[in-house]
UniProtKB/TrEMBL annotation:
Residues 1-35 are annotated as: Disordered. It comes from Oerskovia enterophila. It holds the Pfam family YHS. Residues 1-16 have a biased composition (Polar residues). This is YHS domain protein.
């Protein structure tokens, strides 16, 4: 028995600490232009490189806007209730 806090679960629990290991580079984008960066509408506060997310297919279009995700788990969550997540970004 330990005093460690319980692990939190999220749609991004499969994300690795090393962006190169994940294969998308969307975790960190050193030198990325600020207009390339956005935040994930599902995991609010997670920085996302638009270019890397597009290359990895981590985006959805909803009502004429494109939304970019930090990991593969966020797309299906967004699909389940796009209006909810889109409203959080606006």
């Amino acid at each position: 028995m330990t005093n460690d806090p319980p692990a939190t679960s999220s749609c991004c629990s499969t994300r690795t600490a090393d962006p190169d290991a994940a294969g998308t580079g969307s975790e960190t984008a050193p030198g990325a232009a600020s207009d390339d960066m956005t935040t994930c509408p599902v995991m609010v506060g997670s920085a996302v490189s638009k270019k890397a997310a597009e290359a990895a297919g981590l985006y959805r279009d909803h009502e004429g806007e494109r939304y970019y995700f930090c990991c593969a788990g966020c797309g299906p969550a967004f699909d389940a209730d796009p209006a909810r997540y889109a409203a959080g970004v606006a």
